[in-house]
Amino acid sequence: MHYPHPIIAREGWAYAALATVIAVLVTLYAGWIWSLPLWLIAVFVIQFFRDPPRHIPDEADAVLSAADGRVLLVERCTDPYLEREALKLSVFMNVFNVHSNRSPVDGEVKGAWYHPGSFVNAALSKASLENERNALWIRTAGGADVTCVQVAGLIARRILCYAQTGAKLARGQRYGFIRFGSRVDIYLPPSAVPLVAVGDKVYAASSVLARLG
Length: 213
Description:
Elements: E1 7-8, H1 13-30, H2 32-48, E2 50-51, E3 62-64, E4 69-79, E5 84-93, E6 100-102, E7 107-115, H3 127-130, E8 133-139, E9 145-152, E10 158-161, E11 168-169, E12 174-179, E13 182-188, E14 193-194, E15 201-202, E16 208-211
Antiparallel strand pairs: 1-2, 3-16, 4-5, 4-15, 5-13, 6-12, 7-8, 7-11, 8-9, 9-13, 10-12, 14-16
Helix pairs in contact: 1-2
């Protein structure tokens, strides 16, 4: 689960290498004019798969963002996985955000669910229940239940999750990746206090979304 932040996420090594090799070959055999679009593609691929290290806040009750992006939703609703009242926070990732996903809290994975689905725009509310998604139920040492859901988007076609039931996660720990634009939904106990608003820009592992009550 842990790895020494190689700057470019391991999920993107093959893509970055392929894009760069193609750009180099076209440059050598056809020149810069023909290879320029390929270099732009290579730069895009490299920036998409960047995975910088982050400073992790040490407040025990802090719920950290699981993804980079903008806060799309802050509302009271029903957690569809644990069937309970919850505070829901959603973060939308565009193609220019870091797509490495981090655990929002310290805890043990008590359950995991994968649901195949469609690929509608991840910014739409119905994406939470209609799109391909992978959910983790994490229970903290204090007994709080947190549901963290990776949701595929219009372009995203691959959800990667490395945590399984029984795994122990530390907040800020990298546990998954979503390729090419998507969202992450977090369901918290209703007593949790939100610290962000819709439109706020947040960063995985370093931004505090809420505090557990």
